[in-house]
Specification:
Blueprint lengths: L21 E3 L5 E3 H7 L12 E2 L29
Antiparallel strand pairs: 1-2, 1-3
Pfam families: DUF1272 (PF06906)
Protein name: DUF1272 domain-containing protein
InterPro entries: DUF1272
Length: 82
């Protein structure tokens, strides 16, 4: 099951589990759509993997399948993977 991390690793923007504006890689590194496209060019800076739209979790499913509360934030910002 996806962790559904609550924020963008680059800008710390809130990304609730029902959000349509979150992008993830196969390791679930999480970024807002703006950072994923404009800053990172669709490539995860951590693993070099492709960033794709994270599926939204329906609100009615959150009671039994809660989203993660663990925030991952890089205060120095993000850069494209080499």
């Amino acid at each position: 099951m996806l962790q559904m991390r609550p924020s963008c690793e680059c800008c710390d923007r809130e990304l609730p589990p029902e959000s349509k504006g979150a992008c993830i890689c196969s390791f679930e590194c999480t970024f807002c759509e703006s950072c994923a496209t404009a800053v990172l060019g669709g490539i995860c800076p951590n693993c070099g993997g492709e960033l794709l739209a994270r599926p939204a979790r329906p609100i009615e499913k959150l009671a039994n399948n809660p989203a993660s509360t663990q925030r991952v934030y890089k205060p120095s910002g993000c850069v494209q993977a080499a």
